[in-house]
Amino acid sequence: MKAPPLTRKPLTVRHQKYIDGVLAGKSGRQAAIEAGFAEKSADSRALELNKHPEIIAALAKGREDLRKASGYDVKAAFEELDATMKQAAEAKQFNAVVKAIEAKSRMVGILDKPSPLVGLDIAAVLAAARARRLPARGEAEDARIVNATTAPAKPGFDIFE
Questions:
Q1: In the list 15, 23, 51, 105, which could disulfide-bond 110, CB 3.0-4.6 Å?
Q2: ∠ CA(75), CA(76), CA(78), 5° rounding?
Q3: Is the model's pTM score more than 0.90?
């Protein structure tokens, strides 16, 4: 027997209020509360609403409409970030330069990718570094360091090479 076709539920008034709130810059929680969802469950409700296909589509369309109306696009954002980076560098505000670089990286998706260091055994890496830098300790300490450094290393993850 075939499964019945999936039917999409139309957006309700509360859904539309939620969409309007998010597009106005409110957090998902605040938009859910103002749309009439219970305050106690607003966080989980916002997560649930953000998975609803019709809401996803409506938010994407709303954001595109806002971009068109404002004339602000990726090119304008990059130009603004470049000017900000230049001013920050001239003022020797290097933290601001780093933040601008981070923002640009997020815009192009560089920082959205998982880090190659995920799954790295930090304890083993630190133990290996200590073994190379610290003078010899007692036998128990030496055994601990040797045990930590002889654990199988993941290829390409030895940051001390």
A1: 105
A2: 65
A3: no
Q: Which two tokens stand for residue 6?
A: 């999936």
How many other CB atoms sit within 10 Å of the CB of residue 19? 22
Structure tokens at 64: 């595109």
Q: With contact defined as beta carbons under 8 Å apart, do 88 and 96 qualify?
A: yes
Q: How many CB atoms lie within 10 A of CB 35?
A: 23
Give the Cα separation of 18 and 67 in Å (integer): 19
pLDDT per residue over 10-69, tens digit each? Answer: 889 999 999 999 999 999 999 999 999 999 999 999 999 999 999 999 999 999 998 888
**In 3D, which of 30, 26, 33 has the Cα closest to residue 62?**
26
pLDDT band at 101 (very low <50, low <70, confident <90, very high): confident
